[in-house]
Amino acid sequence: MPISVQWIHEAGPLMTYMASCGSAGCTSFDHADAKWFKIEEYGLRTDGTWGMQDLFEGKEATITLPTDIAAGEYLI
């Protein structure tokens, strides 16, 4: 089913989540045990477009990693 049939708009918010892989690191981490937390969200902008629209237009998406999290390996 085309996106336009499923959703009222083609683009939406652009959200970034992270999950710590714990002391074992991400190589052996079972992603089913991940505890995700959101670090950024670009939603509906004042011009009426969504954050995801930039990706549709081929623009880069950049994120800022939190500076106040524990050292270690993370999934994004």
Write the layout of secondary structure elements.
Layout (H helix, E strand, L loop, with lengths): L2 H4 L7 E7 L16 E6 L10 H4 L17 E2 L1
Antiparallel strand pairs: 1-2, 1-3
Précis, in short:
The protein is of the alpha+beta class and 76 residues long. The chain contains 2 helices and 3 strands.
Keywords:
single chain, elongated, alpha+beta, 11% helix
Describe this structure in words.
- This protein has 76 residues and is an alpha+beta fold.
- Helix content is 11%, strand content 20%.
- It has 2 helices and 3 strands.
- It has helices at residues 3-6, 53-56, and strands at residues 14-20, 37-42, 74-75.
- The protein has a 3-stranded antiparallel sheet with strand order 2-1-3, with no helix packed on it.
- The longest helix has 4 residues, at 3-6.
- The two termini are 28 Å apart.
Identify the overall geometry.
elongated
Structural class: alpha+beta
Oligomerization state = single chain
How far apart the termini lie comes to: 28 Å
Instruction: Give the strand order, joined by hyphens, for the main sheet.
Output: 2-1-3
Q: Which whole number gives the mean pLDDT?
A: 86
Strand content: 15-25%
Reading the helices and strands in chain order gives: HEEHE
Helix content: 10-25%
